[in-house]
Write the structure tokens for this entry.
Amino acid sequence: MARSRAQLALSTRLLNIGLAALCRGGGVDRAELILIDAIRLGLPPDVVTYNTLLAAHCRAAGLDAGLAVVRRMRDAGVSPDAVTYNSLIAGAARRGLTVRALDLFDEMLRSGVAPDSWSYNALMHCLFRSGHPEDAYRVFADMTERGVAPSATTYNTLLDGLFRAGHATNAYRMFRYLQRAGLPVGIVTYNTMINGLCKSGKVGYARIVLRELGRTEHAPNAVTYTTVMKCCFRYGRFDQGLETFLSLLEGGYISDAFPYTTVISALVKKGRMQEANAYCELMIQSGSRLDNACYNTLIHMRCQEGKLDDAFELLNMMEVGGLESDEYTFSILVNGLCKMGQIEAAEKQIWSMEMMGMQSNVVAYNCLIDALCKSHEVDAAIKVLHSMKLRDDFTYTSLVHGLCKVGRYHMASKFLRICLHEGNNVLASAKRAVISGLRSVGFKNDLRKVRSALYMSRLLRS
DNA sequence: TTAGGGTTAG
């Protein structure tokens, strides 16, 4: 008996609910098989069906997998809607593909699909995270001009973006404005504020906001506590940080690997390897999905223990599990190899990183420079420095210290001046080493030049 | 569908 249109629509709705549940549980392949069966039974998939699959594919395999779903939906005569584009833009954002996110937004406008607040939020988020705050502000302006109402997410994204762009004070003012104007301020807003204030060094303000949160109806969650914990570790309140972690653990509030990775890396930094290992076990037992950050934390721990074979075994496990090593992985391995005196192997890691087309990884290079300097191979270190696309304070601190240690004060003063000229800086101890070295050998001309460069850089910074 | 975790210098 033929089914009525209403019956078909109902069946499609049920199908969509089932597919969404499967996709949530990570069963995209199973969802695809069910869709094939449904089509065979004469059940027509609609835009929601495809959007559900698209979001899951995008999350699991990336943007191109999402675009493949768009082609399939077009072939089936189903037109993409705003949700389709929003998922694609979010998929591009997740993998840092800013230009593609912008292209998708343009395509959306060209095809006559009106962007909603989610489209704007996703695009703003992407632009802030990739370091383009000015473009993100323009997107916000465009959104208001087109009469799309900002949502709570919009404000939270703006606050986070202001912090990322280094405008902590403006973020704080905006937060107060949102409160005064009765605009949505929720737990995500509080967490964004506490995190941003901590990271920008405004711990006092972070404390004020945290206390305020305690007086609201919003319950602090695991994100709040992980943020506070990290802040404690950052500012030397180790025991308080550990206590925060233990209260999360004992209360059964941990639902993912974030608190574990935070506490493990703090313990490793302190050299408390036994406890770090114990929490690693707990993290693995908890059944939380282990992502790059987890593996990197574990690899770093093994490196610090001097167990390089175990570290590479973990790298292998990570890759077999479908994860790709990232810039952190490489820096950790290069550092581990250097610290074990295997400089040649470290150089090989850097080459393979370059071969992979990974963007210039300053930290990995810095580790190599530091190791070369510590083994008195300063000329090799200088060569590495020249091959770097980007240099920072760490680069120059290591080199300047290294040059001073071998008594090459003229060269050290030259690199110190280059560093200041580039807008970088070195640790005070490195400056002292150069000045006292130049004094000891009587290089008055260099001493004068360094002092004037230091004076100029202080002026420019203030 | 916005918030939290992972690497380097003294």
User: Anything to note?
Assistant: The domain at 290-390 of chain A is CATH 1.25.40.10 (Serine Threonine Protein Phosphatase 5, Tetratricopeptide repeat). Residues 225 and 376 of chain A are 44 Å apart (CA to CA). The mean pLDDT of chain A is 94.
